[in-house]
Amino acid sequence: MGQLLLGLINGSFYAVLSLGLAVIFGLLNIINFSHGAQYMMGAFVAWMLLNYLGIGYWPALILAPLIVGATGIALEKLALSRLYKLDHLYGLLLTFGIALIIQGLFRNYYGISGLPYQIPDLLSGGQNLGFMFLPNYRAWIVVASVIVCFGTWFMIEKTRLGAYLRAATENPALVGAFGINVPRMITLTYGFGVALAGLAGVLAAPIYAVNPNMGADLIIVVFAVVVIGGMGSIMGAIVTGYGLGLIEGLTRVFYPEGSAVVIFVIMAIVLLIKPEGLFGRTA
């Protein structure tokens, strides 16, 4: 039970990060390989707000995603918008290069040692569940992740704004004919996906040491989650993120040596049986 709960906590990070990737790919057809670096930026922005400006955790939950999302908007306007008519490979290579640049800049300035970020007083302590001691902050991560994932799914699938976004993906010329500024919508959508990565970084900061490599260590797993769920599938990203976190936790109980690769084994099996992913649509 303890490992299942820890797996659920890991799955919460997988779900939020893969959700951002799915939003960007599903609506913009961009393979955003800089997502891990943007996740790392979210953690660093929260750390800098606290240590340089004295701004604590709760305001950082709002400010850091906005700041990271703004950098995503700048990236989309200055670089990615020039690649939409080209093959997906160009966007992947560009975002991969940008990720290396971001990581290099933070590594040169802050080094590779982790920087501590204090858990807010309101979420300190924990609960004795009998089979394990659950820190309040880790329980908060699960709750916050569920709220973010459900809210994003509802916005995209059940609101008029989400309908505009999906329509702009399918037929931008027709949507533009109705007076909707499609380029602005695309830019804001990319910024929103990047802001989700920044939010995940803020949530991760008090648990993991804030360091330039924290995104690089996680992004490969998150890409595997997105592939298993189905590239661009919002529901697939959410369900698969939580599910694979639980499977990873169970694997640590029955076969600890395989816990680091179980997600990639599942990805290989899914690609062989259903290449479009569990929730993906056949092209």
Automatic annotation (TrEMBL):
| InterPro entries, per the entry | ABC_transp_permease, BCAA_transport_permease
Q: Where on the tree of life does the source sit, at the highest rank?
A: Bacteria
Bilayer topology reads:
Multi-pass membrane protein
Q: Where is the signal peptide?
A: none
The answer to whether UniProt assigns keyword Transport to this entry is yes
As for subcellular location, the record says: Cell membrane
List, in alphabetical order, the Gene Ontology terms for molecular function in this entry.
transmembrane transporter activity
Q: Which Gene Ontology BP terms does the record give? A: amino acid transport
Annotated keywords = Amino-acid transport, Cell membrane, Membrane, Transmembrane, Transmembrane helix, Transport
Parts of the chain that traverse the membrane: 12-35, 55-75, 87-106, 137-156, 188-211, 218-247, 253-273
For this record, an example GO cellular component is:
plasma membrane
Fetch the CDD domains from UniProt: TM_PBP1_LivH_like (cd06582)
Entry's family note: Belongs to the binding-protein-dependent transport system permease family. LivHM subfamily.
Provide the protein name: Amino acid/amide ABC transporter membrane protein 1, HAAT family
Q: Which organism is it from?
A: Roseovarius azorensis
What high-level taxonomic lineage is stated for the organism? Bacteria, Pseudomonadati, Pseudomonadota, Alphaproteobacteria, Rhodobacterales
